[in-house]
Design goal:
The protein is mainly alpha-helical. The protein contains eight helices and three strands. A three-stranded antiparallel beta sheet has the order 1-3-2.
């Protein structure tokens, strides 16, 4: 087993992952106004990316009938295109503007996000369906008001293990039940 999957190894030094300082109100308002101005441009880019996604999938279908590896590469390209369809980090949403400095709000937000991932990961698997998610990423935008250490505490209490993460960007988690089922597969087969 890899050392980074051991939550005791990774979690030992997360106490310094504290909440970010409260941002100045003027800077938040400026980010909010900038986001409102940027949204139409972002929507136009999103439409272009979705159109490119559809074209990539059509090409993947055509190329996939001739070459398996070419089709897989085009499908991977289309996944990367949609994966980057996010707002920039400098954007400030309305809830962020309203709840900056409100620790209780951010704790509830972290609890909700981690609870949602836990519900997905622990749901019973249906035959012939995709596997449940074994890894998740909690973005900084969710936990900046309480710090990464709170995310780690909440997630480990619900059965997640910490993966190597950059706390100023996001925290990556691994569903520990998936590790146990992988270990069970190795001993059975």
């Amino acid at each position: 087993m890899y050392e980074y999957k051991d939550s005791q190894f990774v979690q030992a030094d997360t106490e310094h992952w504290v909440a970010a300082p409260v941002r100045p109100r003027g800077l938040l308002v400026l980010g909010f106004v900038g986001m409102i101005a940027y949204i139409p441009v972002w929507c136009a880019l999103a439409v272009v990316k979705v159109a490119g996604f559809i074209v990539c999938l059509l090409l993947a279908d055509i190329v996939g009938s001739v070459s398996d590896s070419g089709g897989r590469k085009l499908v991977a390209l289309s996944d990367r295109m949609l994966g980057r369809l996010r707002l920039p980090g400098w954007c400030v949403t309305w809830p962020e503007l309203r709840h900056e400095g409100d620790t209780a709000y951010h704790r509830a937000r972290v609890d909700k996000v981690v609870g949602r991932w836990t519900a997905r990961a622990s749901a019973p698997r249906k035959p012939n369906k995709r596997l449940w998610p074994v890894e998740c990423e909690i973005p900084w935008r969710v936990y900046h008001g309480v710090g990464g250490h709170y995310v780690v505490e909440t997630a480990t209490a619900q059965g997640w293990e910490l993966r190597p993460s950059e706390p100023r960007v996001s925290i990556r988690l691994w569903w520990s039940a998936a590790t146990q089922s992988e270990a069970g597969k190795d001993t059975v087969g």
